[in-house]
Amino acid sequence: MRKRRRSKVLKPGHEGVKMERTFVMLKPDAIQRGVCGEIISRFERRGLKIVAMKMMQIPKELAEKHYAEHKGKKFYDGLIAYITSGPVIAMVIEGKNAVKLVRDMMGKTNPQESQPGTIRADYAIDLGRNIIHGSDSLQSAEREISLFFSQNEICAYKLTNENWIYE
Q1: pTM score, whole prediction
Q2: Does residue 77 form part of some domain?
Q3: Is residue 128 part of a domain?
Q4: Domain around 61
């Protein structure tokens, strides 16, 4: 009998609930504008768990791997220059349906099309300075997490309030 392969971003959760892990990056404009703490607090208040986080200056080679799907597009060179222009905060966030939940909290890529109350609507105006990146699928999350974090940098722990977050 063949063993079923389990995704690295799915983790055992609260009483049978499957937890997802997603990658989130607060971009250089978030750092420069001093809104990182407010954004991180939104994830924590929602009940999501930060299992890895670091501030770093992204080397050009890593930026090119991260944004490889955009290579050849008109905005690619500007994107690489922007994301390497200053420090970022890279995070792994865990929770039930974390990929979709984080994407919903972030809002649309273009801040002017984002719903009020989303991170991009509240903190950004321009498409090219949209404050935050989040994985768009479980497959992207797994790839992006592995680009920015080694397994020993990701913590496994239980929040004391998980019984109040998940059934």
Answers
A1: 0.89
A2: yes
A3: yes
A4: 10-153
14 is catalytic: no
Burial class from Cβ neighbours inside 10 Å (0-12, 13-18, 19+) for residue 94 reads: buried
Domain harbouring 148, CATH code: 3.30.70.141
**Which of 56-60, 103-107, 124-128, 144-148 comes out lowest in average pLDDT?**
124-128
Task: Specify the pLDDT at position 13.
Answer: 53
Closest CA to 8 of 26, 24, 21, 17: 21
Q: In which residue are the tokens 């090219």 written? A: 128
123 DSSP 8-state letter: H
> What domain count does the chain have?
1
**Residue 104, domain member (yes or no):** yes
User: Taking each helix axis from N to C terminus, what angle separates 36-46 and 98-106, rounded to the nearest 10 degrees?
Assistant: 140
Q: For 54-63, what is each residue's pLDDT tens digit?
A: 999 999 999 9
Average pLDDT over all residues of the chain: 92
Is residue 163 a part of any domain in this protein? no
CB 63 within 8 A of CB 25: no
Q: What is the DSSP string of 54-97?
A: EEEPPPHHHHHHHTGGGTTSTTHHHHHHHHTSS-EEEEEEEEET
